[in-house]
Fold:
Amino acid sequence: MNAVIRGTGVYVPPKVLTNEALSQMVDTSDTWIRERTGVTRRHIAENETTVFMAAEAAKAAIRDAGILPEEIDLIVVATGSSNVIFPCTACEVQREVGAVQAACFDLNAACTGFLFAYNTACSYLQSGFCRCALVIGAESLSHLVDWQDRSTCILFGDGAGAAVVCGEDGPDVAAVMHSDGRLGDALVCETCHQKNWQEKTQATLLRMDGRSVFQFAVKKVPEVVEEVLEKAKLSKDEITYYILHQANQRIVESVAKRLGEPVGKFPMNLSEYGNTSSASIPILLDELKKSGQLKKGQRLVLAGFGAGLSWGASVLTWG
Ligand code: UT7
Structure:
């Protein structure tokens, strides 16, 4: 069973925070941020909630797919920063879009979230449990970032991306997922849903050992791409684009180099959005689709990494 992306959609908040504006808030500069990360601007939610952004992206993806909401039988939302714990974000989206036949749940794998949610949906499609899934990555990391910590607040942005994925006859999906909880301390955000949390507000903010995460990403992402290509029995020549989680331009360039592939096969949009965590891959997919760069039959590799630590990849054929 092949899984085909029938439609995509995004919601990105209109409010923009430029590097210049950030350098008025913390000790940094536009030059440092652009040279070390590739980010120029990021979009920040004002009144929009994670649920709102997820639902708007979902409506756009359903329109783009040309299906009825009732045809969707699974909704998986990848998020680590929702405004709701329960009902889950996916159920809130269901209510907004009218996908009354769908089973709904959220999945938290941080920045690897969309990749894990997509792979989860594909295995549900492959097992015959469902026929048409809505997979969403939605984040409001601006609420979790410490706006006094220049090493993290410059990186992240808010937004949501969605994909309608349907099962079709064809080659089985090739997917790989990994986690290593022993490395979890490198990127942490505790919840406030614990006893005496008011005394621990600092702990509820995102903390990252940037260098460790960087080194982890540039080693593990090429490895997992090679692993998924071997599983799919495909060579790199047969891949049109590698759609990587958009965390840092230097990470993407380093992955391209380690794979021996031209960087032109690694589209990027993090200059505009920063790192939108689980939303980055579907936002990039939507941009490529809308700009006409994706053609039927092309093979794409999706690859993500993030807190957990976790990482994974998937090969898909554009339908
Ligand atoms: O979605 C997955 C999650 N995250 C990631 O993928 C992040 C992976 N890591 C990174 O992208 C990079 O490690 C960062 C962009 C976070 C940092 O870049 P770096 O090149 O690894 O910098 P560094 O942490 O080694 O710091 C170098 C210097 C330090 O100063 P000293 O100690 O050399 O004097 C930092 O204090 O840069 C300083 N620095 C800054 N300077 C200006 C750190 N942040 C900033 C800043 N502006 N915003």
Remarks:
- Residues 28, 32-33, 36-37, 111, 150-151, 154, 187, 210-211, 213-214, 217, 247-248, 275, 306 surround oxa(dethia)-CoA (CB under 6 Å).
- The chain has ten helices and 13 strands.
- The CA atoms of residues 192 and 198 lie 8 Å apart.
- The chain has a mean pLDDT of 95.
